[in-house]
Design the sequence.
């Protein structure tokens, strides 16, 4: 009898650990495992050398064009996500010796620079870059230009969509803006509230200050976003810029959903029917005397320039 | 089974259980740090 009690006690202890560990695994560990789709995500991070102009192994977008700039080259910089676009412009239009790369970064002599949105805005205001390629500026960036007494010209050159993504196993493929706001505000706690199955909604947010989180905050229009406490047991809804997820969708695992009945396809982004479409711009100082800036931007808006934008994964401004 | 042997087995089971759970929790924390949002959404079904 004593032996039976002892064996039972040992089995109970083993069972307690096994049930606890299994629960942790099923609820958390399994959910957080990087799948093959995350590899695609990593590959989509911008690698300088991957889009290096004039390198035959580069994946930079290529077009044949008669327009060339050989002197008074504008110095280019911009948002990291748009680097493949302006590297493509350089590859098509600039002379090969205009790009000086020391193996880690572009040197000061290089007419192609690569920083990020924050530094690029500062560079164009300070006059160390002639044209930058970025999304709309933040209030701080506009304030900095104003403080320096600099007026900036914004020329829209392409379009990008803000997209919402769900697992490809989620039966919901379309939401209205009101439903999306409802999920993020905590009004809709189950997918069945918006035409899906009976699982909990899990609205996923990004890091505060990131570009996509800023756009999402603006999209919510003052309505605070709430987390669904037990949402991690349900189906998630996330958001991103289309550029970052377009290839991932092709791998499976997630899908972009239609918003207000319009899917985020390139045509719908270019013609403006997709409701969450944002322009990105070529930005320069109004007092910049370099004549090539305007010639260059006119070329960017031509078929050749727009083809580079499209080949780089974005949508044309001139559709 | 003697009490001494029982305690030894129980201690071994407890230590193994705690170590296994610790490793699992640490691994989960590690994944939480590096998991992409795409994977998280995809894994949720």
Sequence:
């Amino acid at each position: 009898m004593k032996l039976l009690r002892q064996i039972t006690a040992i089995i109970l202890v083993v069972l307690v650990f096994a049930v606890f560990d299994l629960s942790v695994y099923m609820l958390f560990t399994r959910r957080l495992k990087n799948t093959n789709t995350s590899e695609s995500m990593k590959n989509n991070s911008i690698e300088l050398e991957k889009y290096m102009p004039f390198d035959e192994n580069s994946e930079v977008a290529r077009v044949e064009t008669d327009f060339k700039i050989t002197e008074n080259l504008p110095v280019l910089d911009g948002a990291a996500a748009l680097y493949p676009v302006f590297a493509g412009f350089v590859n098509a239009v600039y002379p090969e010796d205009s790009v000086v790369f020391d193996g880690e970064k572009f040197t000061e002599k290089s007419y192609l620079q690569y920083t990020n949105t924050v530094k690029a805005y500062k560079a164009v205001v300070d006059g160390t870059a002639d044209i930058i390629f970025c999304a709309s500026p933040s209030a701080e960036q506009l304030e900095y230009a104003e403080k320096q007494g600099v007026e900036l010209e914004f020329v829209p050159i392409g379009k990008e969509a803000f997209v919402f993504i769900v697992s490809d196993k989620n039966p919901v493929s379309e939401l209205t803006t009101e439903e999306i706001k409802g999920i993020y505000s905590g009004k809709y706690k189950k997918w069945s509230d918006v035409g899906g199955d009976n699982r909990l909604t899990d609205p996923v947010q990004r890091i505060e200050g990131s570009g996509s989180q800023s756009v999402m905050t603006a999209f919510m229009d003052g309505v605070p976003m709430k987390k669904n406490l037990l949402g991690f047991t349900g189906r998630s809804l996330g958001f991103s810029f289309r550029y970052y997820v377009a290839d991932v969708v092709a791998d499976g695992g997630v899908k972009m959903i239609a918003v207000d009945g319009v899917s985020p396809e390139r045509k719908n982004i270019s013609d403006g029917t997709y409701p969450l479409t944002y322009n990105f711009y070529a930005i320069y100082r109004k007092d910049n005397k370099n004549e090539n800036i305007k010639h260059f931007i006119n070329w960017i808006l031509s078929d050749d320039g727009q083809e580079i934008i499209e080949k780089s994964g974005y949508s044309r401004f001139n559709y | 089974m003697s009490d001494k042997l029982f305690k030894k087995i129980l201690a071994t089971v407890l230590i193994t259980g705690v170590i296994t759970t610790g490793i699992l929790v640490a691994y989960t924390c590690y994944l939480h740090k590096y998991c992409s949002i795409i994977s998280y959404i995809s894994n949720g079904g």
Notes: The domain at 49-158+283-316 of chain A is CATH 3.40.190.10 (D-Maltodextrin-Binding Protein; domain 2). Confidence is low (pLDDT under 50) at residues 37-44 of chain A.
